[in-house]
Amino acid sequence: MARLLTLTLNPALDLSVSLERLVPGTVNRTRETHLTAAGKGVNVARVLVALGHEVTVSGFLGADNDGPFLRAFEALGVEDAFLRVPGETRINAKLSEADGQVTDINGPGAAIGDDAWQRLLDWLAARLDNTERRPAAVVIAGSLPPGVTPERLAALIEQLREAGLPVWVDTSGEALDRAIAARPTAVKPNEQELATWAGEALTSAEARLRAALRLYAAGVEEALLSAGPDGVLWVSARGAWQAVPPRLTVASTVGAGDTLLAALLHGVVEGHTAEQTLRLATALSAESVRHVGVGNPRATDFPHLQQQTRVRRLNDVDAGGAIA
Ligand SMILES: Nc1ncnc2c1ncn2[C@@H]1O[C@H](COP(=O)(O)OP(=O)(O)OP(=O)(O)O)[C@@H](O)[C@H]1O
Ligand SMILES: [Mg+2]
After folding, report:
1. Which of 159, 249, 295, 303 could in theory staple to 288 by disulfide, Cβ–Cβ 3.0 to 4.6 A?
2. Which ligand is nearest to the CA of 253?
């Protein structure tokens, strides 16, 4: 098993509120409320731990409300290397009504100043120099907080790649486009997130394959594209592969993408075959949508879900991103 690092630059505390009906402009009574430590890198860490890896989590946390994170990290058994910045981590509210309607209220996150950014770079440099604790790969996941520009993210990716570290990125918007230009080892956008970069709506299977091949040709060694129930495309030196998950009743798709990315990284660092890697990752991401939270590899029917996942190799891919 490997030592892995996840970076969450803009984590959040998720406040889930369930109520009968939300009536704006009035006093509403809640049925239940929950405050949980969230953030894509934290979700990825949960899956990596479940798959047996030794994980360090880092990024930025507000010093004034890090209690739920401390408890979550302790329960998970990950090393907490988050840098504390003055103030509070943002709180994102998710209001769920009895009829299934969900209203999200998300904050931008606390601004990260030059000194905090430099502290993170210094910590990363020291960690990469530490022969005993150097990670085998780093995952950078989620949105950027104010103060961390897409250019800063791109420069970070380039630095880590120059230091020989595999860098897996999951972000969106301008940050994704700039990240791709910095040639990370892997990216895993969904079909909406990649559309701007691709310059076309990725609604058809052909358009998606075109985009995934172009991503690989642009220098992303592990080009991943997920499309919810339609499954996953994976283009790499191993060829172009496609997987379609089994049909399941959806409870929550939050965390499906994080599960997919983590499980793919697992297969790659463990040196599993492309078929085995994509099958496990796709099945685990499908497992995650049946319930709230990330995929559980210990679900009793997980072997069955893997069998029901359809995986096929489309063909060989040349370095220009064409299918031979
Ligand atoms: N309805 C579904 N049924 C079965 N599997 C699903 C479903 N939705 C998602 N998945 C699985 O999860 C993977 C990732 O989902 P999706 O493409 O929605 O990622 P995402 O939009 O990045 O998710 P996230 O909200 O976690 O960022 C899919 O490729 C698929 O394998
Ligand atoms: Mg996603």
Report:
1. 295
2. 1
